[in-house]
From TrEMBL:
Every Mor transcription activator domain range: 55-141
InterPro entries given in the database record: Homeodomain-like_sf, Mor_transcription_activator
Pfam families xref list: Mor (PF08765)
Name the record gives this protein: Mor transcription activator domain-containing protein
Top-level taxonomy: Bacteria, Pseudomonadati, Pseudomonadota, Betaproteobacteria, Neisseriales
Amino acid sequence: MAWSLTEQEFDNVRHLLPDGAIDLIQVVGADAAYRMIKRWGGTSLPVGMNKTRNGKILHANLAEEIGEENALKIGRLFGKQRFLWVPKCQDALREVRNRKIRAQIDDLTMRGSYSMPEAVRKIAVEYNLTDRQIWYIAKQTDIDASPQMALI
């Protein structure tokens, strides 16, 4: 991914995140969870308890990505499991990307001096997508959390 994700954007698509991602956010915070998902999403991450030589190596690799304090939290909570499934979160990340694209289209066409076709071409190149995909994204609306109806 060439684009970044803020904690607020991650929180805005919380309803699209799998339970495993929400668990990670509760343990290490949104920023560290996003870094783990970006780096290891879709894999079983080996986790050590930072006691043996191999455990210290696993801990050091994790600490390099998410910081020492967060790596210690992961080790304490998930070290006995040996592996931690890090979800990929494709739906949520795609929704954040699409929201950014729609906002950028609005910015370029309404506040800038771009026509819609010019804005679509510029954004397609920037996000490495086809112009047809950008047109499709531009016509969509944000996926919001739907309130659950009470069961009677």
